[in-house]
Automatic annotation (TrEMBL):
Descriptive protein name: DUF4843 domain-containing protein
InterPro entries in alphabetical order: DUF4843
Domain of life: Bacteria
């Protein structure tokens, strides 16, 4: 009888103790709505789309907090003292997190003005508080978006590097010329860097493997007939070094 009484008292004590813990538990971070950019640096060049005078670039954003069954707006502003782009070059639009989604985009309309043919400009974009999102002290509350009409290092070169090695302007021009295209929208499914736009970067590993082999053969053919030796990087960190296509994965 004594043992049962002690056991009963212990059960009551644990119930009260655990109940008290539940009452005192602070509200989880998951419940606070917030939003931030999925990266701190983005870039675009009209050289990828030379037939366009205007284009819309989607800067990816991510949600913290609960999903909702309605669309939510994301307010953004331009940080003037960190921006070199002029007003005629762009239009920054309101961002959106769609109903039921944990990600969204901030659209930037870019204009192919003549000045972009010989310079790269920067747009510094900052998320600011609104009625939908008040939590802003997150990973990347702001980002730098650079754009131009010149040939520049593709934004996804961190993914293309596995197939083509280090970037240089001449090497990228050679690849584009041999492929007859101005971009390779590939993003590795297992990349530690999240794909910022799956609808855009949708090329498969199989396609890229075939392209890599084609470029390998084109480079070998170029080197075979070159009168100045193997092709070398013309700029960047590897300027002056021979270009070598990495071995297949």
């Amino acid at each position: 009888m004594m043992k049962k009484s002690i056991l009963y008292s212990l059960v009551i004590f644990l119930s009260v103790f655990l109940g008290g813990c539940e009452k005192d538990e602070p509200m989880g971070y998951r419940g606070r709505p917030g939003v931030y950019f999925n990266g701190k640096e983005f870039s675009y060049t009209f050289a990828e789309n030379p037939w366009k005078d205007v284009d819309t670039v989607l800067l990816p954003i991510l949600l913290t907090g609960d999903l909702e069954d309605y669309d939510r707006k994301v307010k953004v502003v331009v940080v003037a003292d960190s921006t070199t782009a002029t007003g005629d070059m762009y239009e920054l639009l309101e961002g959106t997190i769609s109903a039921g989604s944990e990600s969204g985009f901030v659209p930037v309309v870019v204009n192919s003005v003549q000045e972009l043919e010989h310079k790269v400009v920067r747009l510094r974009v900052q998320i600011v508080e609104n009625e939908d999102f008040k939590e802003l002290d997150l990973v990347y509350p702001a980002c730098n978006f650079t754009f131009t009409a010149q040939i520049i290092k593709p934004y996804n070169w961190s993914q293309l590097e596995y197939f083509f090695g280090p970037y240089s302007t001449g090497w990228w021009k050679f690849i584009m010329e041999k492929l007859g295209r101005t971009s390779l929208p590939y993003w590795d499914l297992f990349s530690p860097i999240p794909n910022p736009d799956p609808d855009k970067y949708d090329m498969s590993y199989y396609e890229m493997s075939n392209i890599q082999q084609m470029i390998r053969l084109e480079l070998a053919e170029y080197n075979k007939h070159s009168t100045t030796g193997p092709m070398k990087h013309d700029d960047g960190d590897y300027a002056g070094k021979e270009i070598v296509v990495p071995a297949p994965w």
